[in-house]
Design goal:
Structural class of chain B: alpha/beta
Strand content of chain B: 25-35%
Number of strands of chain B: 34
CATH topology of the largest domain in chain B: Rossmann fold
Strand order of the largest sheet of chain B: 17-16-18-19-25-24-23-21
Structural class of chain A: alpha/beta
Helix content of chain B: 10-25%
Strand order of the largest sheet of chain A: 5-4-3-6-7-10
Distance between the termini of chain A: 25 Å
Strand content of chain A: 15-25%
CATH topology of the largest domain in chain A: Rossmann fold
Order of helices and strands of chain A: HHEHEEHEEHHEHEHEEHEH
Largest sheet of chain B: 8 strands, mixed
Number of helices of chain A: 10
CATH superfamily of the largest domain in chain A: von Willebrand factor, type A domain
Number of strands of chain A: 10
Number of domains of chain A: 2
Oligomer: heterodimer
Shape of chain A: elongated
Radius of gyration of chain A: 21 Å
Helix content of chain A: 40-55%
CATH class of the largest domain in chain B: Alpha Beta
Radius of gyration of chain B: 37 Å
Largest sheet of chain A: 6 strands, mixed
Number of helices of chain B: 14
CATH architecture of the largest domain in chain A: 3-Layer(aba) Sandwich
Chain lengths: 308, 696
């Protein structure tokens, strides 16, 4: 299975350069700019009103808005039924944000950490605007910051993201297990990480969430330099997490490196799909609204699948 | 195949350099932070990138180019065979420069290496000879097929202290090959080609058909300080003023050079001096005490790359002044000798002490200490006086006769007439015509040779209003004539003495010569000539000779000893064999002090100081082609080559019987390097990076 990146143009989307967004600084402002602009660009889109998609019928009860009575059902059955929509379900959306040192790398004007921060903020903003309960967990080696899901926790989530700093080596299993244990309601867990771990370990870590009935979307963030490997002259590479140095002849080993990265991403996607976990590879040069678009497509697909 | 310079095989060792660099420079200085080495660690670069050749073809090409270059510098050659063998064996004369300048730095070892390379390049059947040259050429090894003999001779050679005479070596080499009946004859000239060592007057040529190849040892190095000269004045009172000249032959100035003066083995004084590049400076040692019997001395600068010219050896001997007796006539002007006296008083070399006496009262006691007599406008009519003077001259005295208005040579006695050496013809008065000038001078004569060069003295400015007409007698030589052809200065010998006759006055009465700038040197030259004065020879140049009898003549009781021994500067004692006929010449080839000692008897030993020729100090080279063009005869080839770096592109100049392969190898190396560059550029051109991406 080959991994895909979402860097292609999306019709109707207004792309915002992540590097430009990084200059704004205020996370909420960034999220609002991106999300509101994004929604404004979706007027002619089939995704308009996604959050009020039909979910089920229930019998009319006194006090219900008569505008929500399904008159066609009434015509067939002679009973009053009210249409319920998805947005009214107040789903849990929890963001698991990887703040390990490997995320503090950027070759295109923005680090993966900042890009993930903006992406998570946008998603949180988008979810909150749909009246979802939003929460977040920032982790490195362990869980370092935790905001429980709530409809009123949007600002707390953004604050937690603001505070996130790369200070430790990354680990997925322990923090994700902690998160899985902390979430009591089923909902959507969005993992934002570079997923520098063995695919089996990643699946094992996310399996804890899936095992508790959570829907999971994993955004794998990679810098353009990690997917292009544009280096040519011999040099030493230093691991951001361990400080280890390795003399490398990039020109000589580019092909092998890219093959390994490609294999890793493909293996991740395959294993996660088997676990019904969405996997999205995002290169940090990709405009944020394009990623949001892909996110909505995935959610839409998942909701339909669940209903189907 | 053989090699002329197999030492360059070590150049193949350069092959290891890139490999060593490749293996040792594993840790690059440039460090790039990267999120994770997870994938990089998995790439097996440790075993492939460093230890495996990335581009075997490029590596092979580079190695091949290095090997070809090393081979080219080894100068491989193959001996002629088949059709080439028809040319037959050859005779080669190695003409090796052994002059003092070869002692500069490592030139001598380079010269010997070149000579050995020539020997190594000989083919079977070739004959080789070794001729060395400096001031003289010597055949060290005659033409022989035994190369080992030449190698042995080379090992025993060393540069001498004499100067360079390339033409002498060419002449001897040409003579050796002229007797050769081989079809191929060649001279290999190995020298530093000092400009001063070549006189290309075209007098020397190699026989037709003799090839000449040159190996120049010259390079850019020319830094050399030399003690070029020393002048001595004021020795009379036992104290001397020594002015040494320090020459800097190099391209950079020398500052604070300590110059030491040593007398009788003791350092007397040291002075520091700054010498400009390609310039000279003088160092003055004032008031230096010198023993009455003389002493050995040295002026020296610190030793440099050419040591032979860093010391100037000299003998500080006394130079007594000349006693000049001026005999005047009873009548005449009181100041007639004034100008002569003043002129003699000015001289330094020689110094002169003059005394005026009346000619009519000539006393033999006056003549005894006199070095020369000036008979100034005085007559010699008295037979006794004339005879006394004649006898004195005949015994070796010097006489200058000045014929003024009071001389009246027509009335002289027979002895006087003999001293005059010419028939008097009376006074010639040219006042009415405004006087006459000197029209002809014999510039080859010692009196006038000083004035031979342009702007070295103008005698034509002087006007002569009266003169004594004389007709030169037999054996009398006219040295100068007036405009009318009348003799102005005559010379002849009387016994062992010399006589000069000046047919006008030496004051302002008959001419204005005394007012001319040439007057003073003219008087000095006449006195030097009649007294046979020679400056004391304080040293001789290495390679020169001295005559035994002249050398020991001044030694006390020198006439007693007959057999003499020469003690060289190195301390060797060599008996001096007298020539059966003629003078006995002693060659002096080493710098330092020679001593000539009597085998027996009371005679004092005599010292001779020897110094290197100043010409050897100037290392400026000339183009070897100048020699080649001048000496190579018809039907011969010529090759010029730097000793350490062979020039490309002269295959025609290869010695016959040998085919050198260095230039095709160089050409091939160039082609290989060009191919390597082309391929490397193509392969290392940056490839467009791949991406971790797939179809949508």
């Amino acid at each position: 299975m080959r991994a895909k990146i979402v860097s292609r143009a999306v019709p109707g989307a207004r792309f915002l350069d992540p590097a430009v967004l990084s200059r704004i600084g205020n996370l909420e402002l960034v999220a609002r700019s991106v999300v509101e602009g994004f929604i404004a660009g979706l007027h002619s889109s089939p995704f308009l009103g996604l959050s009020v998609d039909f979910a089920a019928h229930r019998q009319y009860e006194p006090g219900d808005d008569i505008r929500k009575v399904d008159w066609r059902v009434y015509a067939r059955t002679d009973r009053f039924y009210i249409k319920e929509y998805e947005a009214e379900t107040n789903a849990n959306v929890f963001f698991a944000f990887d703040a390990s040192r490997s995320m503090d790398y950027g070759s295109a004007g923005i680090t993966k950490l900042d890009y993930g921060r903006y992406l998570t903020a946008c998603l949180a903003y988008l979810s909150a605007s749909q009246r979802d309960r939003v929460g977040a967990g920032v982790f490195g080696e362990g869980l370092v910051d935790y905001v429980p899901p709530s409809v009123r926790h949007r600002r707390l989530v953004l604050s937690a993201l603001e505070r996130a700093s790369p200070e430790a080596a990354g680990d997925l299993i322990r923090p994700l297990t902690q998160i899985a244990e902390s979430l009591r309601r089923r909902g959507l867990v969005v993992l934002v990480s570079d997923l520098y771990a063995e695919p089996a370990g990643v699946v094992k870590a996310l399996g804890a969430l899936r095992g508790r009935g959570q829907d999971v979307i994993a955004f794998q963030l990679l810098d353009p330099a990690e997917v292009d490997f544009p280096f040519d002259t011999p040099r030493s590479f230093e691991d951001l997490e361990t400080g280890e140095r390795l003399p490398v002849t990039p020109d000589e080993m580019r092909d092998e490196y890219l093959s390994l990265v490609r294999g890793h991403v493909g293996e991740l996607a395959r294993l996660l799909t088997e676990q019904r976990i969405d996997h999205e590879l995002v290169v940090t040069s990709t405009p944020l609204d394009a990623v949001l678009f892909r996110y909505l497509v995935h959610r839409s697909r998942r909701l339909k699948a669940r209903r189907g | 195949m053989s090699f002329l310079t197999p030492a360059f095989l070590a150049g193949v060792g350069l092959l290891l350099v890139p490999v060593i660099i490749h293996l040792t420079q594993r840790q690059r200085r440039e460090v790039t932070a990267f999120p994770s080495l997870m994938f990089l660690r998995r790439v097996p670069f440790r075993t492939t990138s460093r230890r495996r050749i990335r581009h075997p073809l490029l590596f092979a090409l580079r190695c091949l180019a290095l090997i070809l270059l090393a081979l080219a510098f080894m100068r491989p050659f193959v001996r002629a065979s088949g059709a080439d063998a028809a040319e037959g064996a050859r005779d080669v004369v190695i003409l090796l420069d052994t002059s003092a300048s070869l002692g500069f730095a490592d030139r001598w070892s380079a010269a010997v290496d070149e000579a050995r390379a020539v020997v190594d390049g000989l083919a079977d059947g070739d004959r080789v000879a070794l001729v060395t040259f400096s001031r003289q050429a010597r055949a060290r090894v005659d033409l022989t097929p035994e190369a080992a003999v030449v190698r042995t001779a080379l090992a025993e050679l060393a540069p001498d202290d004499t100067d360079t005479r390339i033409e002498s070596g060419i002449q001897l080499a040409g003579r050796m090959l002229a007797e050769s009946d081989q079809a191929t004859r060649e001279v290999v000239l190995i020298s530093d080609f000092q400009r001063s060592g070549w006189d290309d007057a075209g007098r020397v040529r190699l026989p037709d058909g003799v090839a000449l190849s040159t190996r120049s040892l010259a390079d850019d190095r020319d830094a050399n300080l030399a003690v070029a000269d020393a002048r001595f004045t004021g020795l009379e009172a036992g104290r001397v003023r020594i002015v040494a000249r320090i020459a800097n032959m190099g391209q950079s100035a020398a500052t604070g050079v300590p110059v030491s003066l040593e007398l009788a083995g003791r350092t007397v004084a040291t002075r520091d001096v700054d010498v400009d590049a390609r310039g000279a400076a003088t160092v003055v040692f004032e008031d230096v005490p010198v023993p009455a019997e003389g002493a050995r001395g040295r002026v020296s600068v610190p030793e440099d790359a050419l040591p032979v010219d860093d010391v100037l050896h000299f003998l500080a001997t006394s130079d007594p002044p000349l006693d000049i007796l001026i005999l005047e006539g009873g009548r005449g002007r009181a100041d007639r000798s004034l100008y002569v006296e003043r002129a003699l008083a000015v001289g330094e070399t020689p110094r002169a002490r003059s005394s005026r006496r009346p000619a009519a009262q000539l006393d033999p006691a006056w003549l005894a200490p006199a070095s020369a007599v000036i008979l100034n406008d005085a007559d010699l009519s008295g037979a006794a006086r004339a005879t006394r003077l004649h006898d004195w001259v005949e015994a070796g005295g010097g006489l200058l006769i000045v014929l003024g208005p009071n001389a009246d040579p027509g009335g002289w006695s027979a002895a006087g007439a003999d001293l005059l050496g010419a028939a008097p013809g009376g006074v010639e008065d040219r006042t009415s015509s405004g006087g006459v000038r000197l029209a002809w001078l014999d510039y080859d004569h010692p009196v006038f040779e000083l004035f031979a060069a342009p702007r070295s003295g103008d005698f034509s400015e002087a006007r002569f209003f009266r003169l004594q007409r004389v007709e030169p007698g037999e054996g009398t030589r006219v040295l100068a004539r007036f405009e009318g052809g009348e003799p102005a200065l005559l010379e002849h010998s009387v016994g062992q003495g010399r006589v000069l006759v000046w047919t006008s006055t030496l004051d302002r009465f008959w001419n204005d010569l005394a007012l001319q700038p040439v007057f003073l040197p003219f008087v000095h030259r006449m006195i030097r000539h009649v007294t046979r004065y020679r400056e004391p020879e304080r040293w001789v140049t290495a390679g020169g000779v001295v005559e035994l009898d002249a050398l020991v003549a001044g030694a006390a009781a020198g006439g007693v000893a007959r057999e003499w021994v020469l003690v060289t500067p190195a301390g060797d004692r060599r008996p001096i064999e007298r020539a059966i006929t003629g003078p006995t010449w002693i060659p002096l080839e080493e710098i330092g002090f020679y001593q000539v000692e009597p085998v027996e008897g009371a005679a004092e030993p005599v010292s001779v100081a020897v110094n290197a020729s100043p010409a050897e100090s100037d290392l400026a080279p000339m183009a070897p082609e100048r020699v080649v063009e001048a000496v190579v005869g018809a039907g011969a080839t010529a090759t010029t080559e730097a000793a350490s770096a062979p020039e490309a592109g002269a295959p025609d100049g290869q010695p016959p019987g040998r085919r050198e392969l260095w230039w095709p190898l160089l050409l091939l190396a160039g082609i290989v390097l060009a191919a390597e560059s082309l391929i490397a550029n193509r392969w290392t051109r940056r490839r467009p990076p791949a991406r971790v991406a797939g179809p949508a």
